[in-house]
Amino acid sequence: MSHDGFAVPGPLGRVELTGAALASLVTRATEAVEGVRLRSRRRVSVAVDPRGVRVEVGVQAAGGVQLAGLGAAVQHSVARAVIATTGLPAQVDVTFEEIA
């Protein structure tokens, strides 16, 4: 998946949110969830199309944490941030790559 940007026409010109900015937004939203850590920004993938934003994120989970609940918390945090910033619906896929 790519790091596509997001652009909309405005009254004075185009407004663009780059793929790097979207990835940064996803990174902050993911790391806001207690018990989760990104191992690298390379584990964040964002693509935008007319239907919405698709995010894939690979994370490290703290040991002893219930993974289904933790994954749902990451999905909600990221989706909330993406929707608030872009106004587009978000699909968020979480992969647990390591348990520390």
Give a quick summary of the entry.
This protein is α+β, with helices and mostly antiparallel strands. It has two helices and six strands.
Description:
The longest helix is centred in the last third of the chain and has 20 residues. α1 packs across α2. Strands 3, 4, 5 and 6 form a 4-stranded mixed beta sheet that branches. Strands 1-2 form a two-stranded antiparallel sheet. The mean pLDDT is 89. It is of the alpha+beta class and 100 residues long. It is built from 2 helices and 6 strands. β5, α2 and β6 form a beta-alpha-beta unit. It is elongated and about 50 Å long. Helices cover 33% and strands 39% of the residues.
- Roughly what is the average pLDDT, rounded to an integer? 89
Taking all Cα atoms into account, the compactness measure Rg is 14 Å
Strand fraction equals 35-45%
- Uncertain spans: none
Termini separation: 27 Å
Q: What is the succession of H and E elements?
A: EEHEEEHE
- The helix count comes to 2
Fraction in helix: 25-40%
Largest sheet: 4 strands, mixed
Helix/strand structural class: alpha+beta
Tell me the overall shape: elongated
Compute the number of strand runs.
Answer: 6
Defining traits:
four-stranded mixed sheet, 100 residues, two-stranded antiparallel sheet, alpha+beta, 33% helix, single chain, 2 helices
SSE topology sketch:
Blueprint: E1 6-10, E2 13-17, H1 19-31, E3 36-38, E4 44-49, E5 52-61, H2 67-86, E6 90-99
Parallel strand pairs: 5-6
Antiparallel strand pairs: 1-2, 3-5, 4-5
